[in-house]
Amino acid sequence: MNRRLLLSLLSAVMLSLPWYTPFSGILLWVAFVPLLVLEHDFAMRKARGCWKYYALTFVVWNAITTYWISQATLGGAIGAVVGNAGQMFLLFALFRWVKRKTTNTIGYAFLVALWLAWEYFYFDTEISWPWLVLGNGLAKDIRIVQWYEYTGVLGGSLWVWLVNLTLFHIITSRRTIFKKQFILTLSLTGVLIMAPVAASLIRFYTYKEAVNPCRVAILQPNIDPYHEKFGSMSDVEQFEILLSQAESATDSLTDYVVAPETAIDRIYENMIGQNRAVQAIRRFVEHYPQVNFITGMTSIYFYSPGEKRSITARETNDGAYDVFNASMQINRTDSIAVYHKSKLVILVEKTPYPQFFSFLKSLSLDLGGYVGNYGTQDEREVFPSADGRFRIGTAICYESVYGRYYTEYIRKGANVMSIITNDGWWDDTPGYRQHLTYASLRAIETRRSIARSANTGISAVINQRGEVCAATGWWERTTLNGTLNANEYITFYVRHGDYIGRLACFVVLLIGGYVGVRMLLKRL
Questions:
Q1: Which of 2, 83, 115, 275 is most buried, with most CB under 10 Å away?
Q2: Each residue of 433-446: b (16+ CB within 10 Å) or e?
Q3: DSSP state letter for 346
Q4: pLDDT tens for residues 411-449?
């Protein structure tokens, strides 16, 4: 194997391993170094063909890390791998172009800023797959990223790039080992690594949660999404399992019962109180009047004549309706609170940019339930408890991957959080484990405890430091009881969002303007 191919594959493997359970995210500190050495070698020799090697790095990284999407759809997996790797390829190609037009220092600064700006925008685009945002790779290393409450995951991405670049500079400056510049770079690298680690460890071991206990009963019905949920098992049978679990897990101290995503099917919002499952839950909370029952559901809303319809409305001869992946809360009050999932999965729950890609509707994946575009809502919803002590946000599945989006629940007043999901689509692969670790990052960023209910994945109780205090097994029909402490504190990240991403965009524009002016002056 030639040296260039080895460097390309070495970076790909080291970038992939942090997303696997046995490995630490600190591998990311050195993961880009082989790729940077490879690029440096091509630049010094003024050789052609570098693009083949960094394209290989990004494709292999994406394939190793997210191959599990193929459990649900091979075409979707190929699209996610090629699409995500293709964007990374373009970022690296732009970096090489800017470096050739300016200087090495400006080029590397542009690379960091451009990558962070891309991650920042990737959270908000309709074709969005931010699973491999670099800061996510540190999700299992919660003791050293407690400062995410100030920076969010983009702070982790910045940290990864800065450490890689300083280590790369040390390697390429090895012939000047006795010069002051080398000693300075070596010292800077030590500070870049140790200062955030030390600050995080201090925060982790000194952080104290205010005592405001909220008792939760988490349900994991473990209904196979492929063969039972939308197939052989009726809605009645599924609900009976859910209700039986709730009865066994609830006592007089329970504040919340949390059931997973789409636990109940076909709830008509226009007459929600007449639904048999809703009525059964109401009878349940009559026995436990302190309980707030939260469950995922597939809901349908019919528009009345003349009512303004959304872009996702489905037309029929009798009018129009919207389908939602939703959650609801039922307690002793008369009202039933409903929230509609609004970060939807591409080609499963929505067609991206329908005004341009309407032809993609025919490619929508049938994973059970309703195929096509689901409805959304503009703002997050927070459910108040019956006694007014707690206000809970309910992030549905994919929404828990988006840090800035997730903070909207806290800005709406949530003092405790829940995540409801169904991770069984990906079978027993790294996908559901990776998804669980991202919940720990959301807990750190917001300092909100989490009750996580997964139909077939891993249900868990997560504290404000991101620790998984209790968890179920994979593919297990069970319940989990635990205690969360509600918190009113607003973190710096919740208050200010992804300011690192905004700053990165400014730097990209600044360097881009400089390159443009420089090229213009050369032509004059």
A1: 115
A2: bbbbbbbbbbbbbb
A3: B
A4: 999 999 999 999 888 888 999 999 999 999 999 999 999
